[in-house]
Design goal:
Layout (H helix, E strand, L loop, with lengths): L1 H15 L12 E11 L5 E9 L19 E9 L2 H11 L3 E3 L5 E5 H4 L4 H9 L8 E5 L3 H5 L9 H10 L8 H8 L5 E9 L13 E10 L2 E7 H10 L7 E4 L8 E17 L2 E17 L8 H29 L7 H8 L1 H8 L2 H5 L3 E12 L8
Parallel strand pairs: 1-4, 1-5, 5-6, 6-7, 12-13
Antiparallel strand pairs: 1-2, 2-3, 7-8, 8-9, 10-11, 11-12
């Protein structure tokens, strides 16, 4: 009996000793940290990957020079094909190591590519088991591969610069998952951050610069139809209740200078209303702010001055939102502000009739604003304010 029990325990132990049959050594892998998608003149997809080169051996990239100023460097390799999967196969044939996609946290798509549509390529990233849905997506103003070929001085690679830009949350931050959710939304529109190359400093090499976010790309059904500047992008963030960090400078009436405030907290609620054939939306915003610079002679400890400042701030935000609507509602006719989803939630049955021609109906939505600004701290200053 004891012998049988011992044999059972031994068998159970053997079953747990599965070993490392599927292990993959780091030295056998090409660890991809960034991805760039372009279109060739022949209409082929050009896939460029940024590959981590451990140890900083000074490898040279395809586009000239190593792509890192620190110890850890990266190299670039490109594949072409009729589809993204086909381009990956071409790329695989050029590499001596197996590609590992799970560390690719930055994906850059060229503007020319985005204008032809990106849905099919997103299908690859979603279906493939390795790419992460939390990877950040960007649209480049020029060639996408030129963005990941840059050699930043502060970070180890171009993809690391892009990741930090996204995580700063100053403008748009969109992951692969976020983009898929937007494309599945009621309006079928999406908005992505656009990156461009910073001007090269005198005496620096061509690639010795960094990328920066300067605009946002607007897409309908996966195709880019236009873009908006950074100020309008912040307006979109207010509508979507995604504002995180922002500094707003105002010049109140009767003031002899400017006052700058740091937005500590902002909350936006969209309140839809269907009145017969009319569509209405109330945008309610509450914000809490700190004064960080006062160039006026105002004493902000005085209640009257403080209230005038809060009113000026609310007016500034309302004007920014109005300017944003003028472009996205009247010109682009792209509901990137989330109106469609709010109407569907509140009026699910009526929405079925409105959805068919929402692009035209969106342009007719009557919008009113209810904005409250509260200055929490006025701070200490060199003058008696």
């Amino acid at each position: 009996m004891k012998r049988s029990i011992a044999i059972c325990f031994i068998c159970m132990a053997i079953m747990l000793l599965t070993g490392c049959w599927d292990r993959r050594e780091t030295n056998d892998l090409a660890i991809i940290t960034g991805v760039a998608l372009d279109k060739t003149e022949e209409g082929l997809i050009e896939l460029t990957v940024e590959i981590h080169s451990p140890g900083g051996s000074g490898n040279r990239s395809e586009m000239g020079g190593d792509s890192g100023g620190g110890k850890n460097k990266t190299i670039l390799q490109t594949g072409k094909g009729v589809s993204l999967a086909d381009a990956m196969e071409d790329l695989d044939e050029k590499l001596s190591r197996q590609m590992l996609w799970s560390h690719a946290e930055a994906i850059v798509i060229s503007k020319a590519f985005a204008e032809t549509g990106i849905r099919d390529e997103l299908d690859f990233f979603v279906r493939h088991p390795e790419p992460r849905l939390r990877s950040y997506i960007f649209i480049s103003d020029g060639k996408a591969k030129e963005i990941i070929a840059l050699r930043p001085s502060l970070e180890r690679s171009s993809s690391e610069v892009l990741i930090k830009l996204a995580e700063s949350e100053v403008l748009m931050k969109v992951t692969l998952f976020d983009l898929m959710e937007m494309l599945k939304g009621e309006s079928g529109t999406s908005v992505l951050p656009m990156v461009a190359k910073s001007p090269r400093e005198q005496g620096k090499a061509v690639l010795e610069t960094v990328s920066y976010i300067n605009r946002s790309a607007v897409l309908k059904q996966g195709k880019m139809i236009g873009s908006i500047n950074d100020q309008l992008t912040r307006g979109v963030l207010w509508f979507r209740n995604e504002i995180k960090e922002s500094i707003v400078t105002v010049k109140p009436e009767e003031a002899d200078g400017y006052i700058s405030m740091d937005i500590l907290k902002g909350r936006t609620v969209l309140i839809p209303e269907m009145d017969g054939h009319r569509l209405k939306m109330t945008v309610k915003i509450e914000m809490i702010d700190d004064v960080i610079q006062n160039q006026t002679d105002w004493n902000l400890k005085e209640l009257e001055k403080l209230q005038m400042l809060e009113a000026a701030l609310a007016q500034k935000i309302e004007q920014r939102l109005t300017d944003t609507l003028e472009i996205v509602q009247k010109e682009l006719k792209a509901d990137i502000v989330g109106f469609a989803d709010e109407f569907r939630r509140k009026y699910p049955e009526k929405w079925k009739k409105e959805k068919a021609d929402w692009e035209e109906r969106f342009a007719t939505v009557e919008v009113t604003f209810d904005i409250e600004a509260e200055v929490l701290r006025t701070g200490r200053g060199s003058a008696p304010q």
